[in-house]
Specification:
The protein is of the alpha/beta class. Among the domains are: 204 residues, Rossmann fold (3-Layer(aba) Sandwich), CATH 3.40.50.280; 70 residues, no CATH class. It has 24 helices and 25 strands. Strand 5 and strand 6 form a beta hairpin. Helix 10 packs antiparallel against helix 22 and helix 18 packs across helix 20. The chain is globular and about 75 Å long. The termini are far apart.
Length: 723
């Protein structure tokens, strides 16, 4: 993997003489107090501004400030006019626009497309403070306010919409967000390297139109081939003919294929086409830095689900910073060009980013108003970034990458001490020491050469790669050091735990269970059945059972009564009604009663979203014929799958009785321990009006005979009983 300039190595911009702001200004009065006549950069965000490294705009703002730039914040502006976008004046360099820490559509709507009543990233949890797809209207208002100022969009909302993408809320494929926002550049992934380079080059009077060589960015250009570039054609799923070598465009390197022999390489070079357009294949050209893959055009993927699935697969195979090529996708008369992903930050750079002078509290503008997201993270510490799990429903890998970026132990301990000494309300408990996952800290490929050439979608699926280092010792040592700090009573672990990695380190599980579980530990097996687990790229339920045995053993040894809280997903692509029924039976046998359940939500650009939209398995080569999977679509089937997860809820029993009869499983209806749901119905539930006792029927029956009863209830056991 090529090296990148050290993040903090550039000469600071002249404005560094103004010093460090207590909090980045949100008004002209604050700018005056700092002695500023203008801002060099203004960041516009859909979140309330909290000056804490867990909030993207605070982190990017402080990084830019460390480079010497004057940075202002416009938080949750009124998007109906340009007035709020003028409140800090015209920025000297650019507007940076983001939807916030969450995608604005995920933030506002449930998986059933219902509007949420609150917003965790807004003062007092108030909903409705940001528009749908807010990157677009924010960018438009910035342009309206100051026409000549460059607009740079970024954050997770822009990152996951960098090419044509399926939009679940409108049930259609939308074009790249940079087209709708009419922005000059799109920053995807972790953005520190990109924004620092953009800021310095604009400060050096370089036109934004010439910033086309920055990794981790996308831009718009005229349709057609760029001079000096080799173009690999991947705009079709058809098998190449004799003119072009019929080499598998999906070749995925595993441990056995990570190295190519010298003879094969030389032969490949000899066979390279002499033209400037070649078919997409696994042989790398002489200069990969000048090679681009042409994806199917937006006009094609919006109406052809198979081409969309094909495009998604190619995108996911080109995410390793060590070998990813540039991508280009036509949008009408324009092309959206994606440069390769950014080079991950080193440990020293990560430390530098998190050691910046954050005030670690919400901006003073909000007074005493509670910001729920801040309350959740103010006593937590982010120790790493990235995830090599590759779960198809998750957006972490698409945004942060598969290569783990870890902070040093000293930097983490320094932040724990800062929380202890300066954060209001600290009671001695660190609520989390983690990140996207709890236990990938300092885990990496054993070979940098293999890591740079690998094209696996996951390092842990279908099995854990033999080249992956899984030593949890650095994390164990970090836990021990953190919990030994004076004034720290408890270090809890709340991040998602990869139990398939944890079981490889009994010492880690013992440390975790003995010292870092507050009675309950959340864990996400997601399902029990092989079909949906394969589509999720998650381990089998046997691994969960193994972890649970270790959890119970070490809890008993520690003399603690502790419980696992498993999470499951309903209606994920690849899930049948039978799969959900088997999961419900498993839950009943284990005595689990899920209070809240998660129905699958297709997030933009995720592999599972492509499966949902196309009905194709994108984990293998996409073909016109074959590779079809079951996709639970429609409100009825999604509600049924959620109801099966909440088999114990009387409101769901009428629906489940009908479904079980249709599935030929009326044997699961009854009042014994072996039954899933009872024959009786409590008063006022399930739309029944009065309490009823339902007689069991045969598997072929389509309705139930009912008998009215007068129920009484017991608070400990809400089951009605006859008098």
């Amino acid at each position: 993997m090529q090296a990148a300039p050290e993040l903090f190595s550039r000469r600071k911009f002249w404005a560094h003489r103004f010093g460090v702001a207590p909090q980045l200004p949100m008004s002209r009065e604050e700018m005056d107090d700092l002695g500023w006549d203008s801002c060099d950069i203004i960041l516009v965000t859909g979140d309330a501004y909290v000056d804490h490294p867990s909030f993207g705009m605070a982190l990017i703002g402080r990084v830019l400030e460390s480079q010497g730039f004057r940075v202002g914040i416009i938080s949750q502006p009124d998007w109906l006019t340009a007035d709020d976008f003028k409140q800090l004046g015209e920025p000297n360099l650019f507007f940076g626009v983001t939807g916030g820490n969450m995608d604005s559509m995920v933030n506002r709507y449930t998986s059933d497309r219902r509007i949420r009543s609150n917003d965790a990233y807004t003062a007092a949890g108030e909903g409705g403070k940001r528009p749908d797809r807010c990157v677009v209207p924010y960018s438009q208002r910035c342009r309206e306010a100051y026409k000549g100022v460059p607009i740079i969009i970024g954050g997770i909302e822009a990152s996951l919409r960098r090419i044509a993408h399926f939009d679940y809320w409108s049930e259609k494929v939308r074009r790249s967000v940079i087209m709708d926002a009419k922005a000059d550049l799109l920053v995807y992934g972790n953005g520190e390297r990109q924004v620092v380079e953009i800021a310095h080059r604009l400060a050096a009077n370089e036109p934004v139109s010439e910033l086309t060589d920055i990794r981790g960015t996308a831009f718009i250009t005229k349709h057609g081939q760029r001079e000096g570039w080799w173009e690999k054609d991947s705009s079709s799923v058809d098998t190449p003919g004799k003119i072009n070598p019929p080499i598998d465009p999906y070749a995925m390197q595993t441990e056995a294929s990570c190295e190519t022999s010298k003879a094969e390489t030389e032969q490949a070079k000899a066979n390279e086409p002499k033209t400037n357009i070649i078919r997409f294949h696994k042989i790398m050209p002489k200069d990969s830095s000048k090679s681009v893959i042409r994806l199917p055009a937006y006009q094609e993927v919006r109406s052809d689900t198979v081409l969309y699935a094909h495009t998604s697969r190619i995108l996911h195979l080109e995410t390793n910073p060590g070998n990813a090529l540039a991508l280009v996708q036509q949008h009408g008369e324009r092309d959206v060009w994606l440069n390769p992903p950014p080079i991950p930050l080193t440990t020293e750079e990560m430390d530098g980013v998190f050691d910046l002078p954050y005030s670690r509290v919400p901006h003073k503008r909000y007074g005493d108003k509670n910001i729920p997201a801040y309350e959740m993270i103010r006593f937590s510490v982010n120790i790493m970034r990235g995830c090599f799990g590759g779960c198809t429903f998750c957006s972490i890998t698409e945004h942060e990458g598969r290569i783990i970026q870890s902070r040093s132990e000293d930097s983490i301990i320094k932040e724990v001490e800062a929380i202890r000494d300066t954060t209001p309300g600290f009671t001695g408990v660190i609520s989390d020491l983690g990140g996207p996952t709890a236990n990938m800290y300092r885990l990496a490929c054993n070979s940098k050469e293999i890591e740079a050439s690998c094209r696996r979608l996951s390092c842990v699926y279908p099995t854990i790669c033999k080249n992956l280092g899984t030593d949890h010792t650095p994390l164990i040592n970090l836990y021990k050091r953190a919990r030994a700090l004076p004034g720290v009573k408890k270090i809890l672990i709340a991040s998602g735990l990869r139990y398939d990695l944890a079981v490889l380190s009994p010492e880690y599980v013992k440390e975790l269970v003995t010292h870092h579980v507050g009675g309950y530990l959340k864990i996400a097996p997601e399902h029990t059945e092989e079909g949906p687990l394969d589509m999720m790229m998650k381990p089998g339920i046997g691994t969960y059972d193994k972890f649970k045995a270790m959890f119970d053993k070490y809890s008993k040894e520690a003399g603690k009564e502790q419980y696992l809280i498993p999470y499951f997903i309903a209606a994920h692509p690849g899930t049948t009604d039978k799969d959900m029924l088997n999961l419900a039976i498993w839950l009943k046998k284990k005595g689990f009663r899920a209070d809240q359940v998660q129905a699958y939500l297709p997030s933009p650009m995720s592999a599972a979203a492509a499966m949902y939209h196309s009905g194709k398995n994108t984990l293998h080569k996409v073909k016109r014929k074959g590779g079809d999977i079951t996709v639970p679509k429609g409100i009825k089937v999604r509600r049924l799958h959620k109801a099966l997860l909440r088999y114990h809820d009387p409101e769901n029993w009428p629906m489940l009785r009908d479904a079980l009869n249709k599935m030929g499983r009326a044997d699961l209806i009854g009042n014994g321990k072996k039954h899933l749901i009872p024959t009786w119905q409590p008063a006022g539930t399930g739309g029944q009006g009065e309490g009823r006792r339902m007689s069991r029927s045969s598997a072929q029956a389509k309705s139930f005979r009912t008998q009215h009863v007068r129920p009484t209830t017991n608070k400990k056991n809400p089951k009605p009983r006859r008098r």
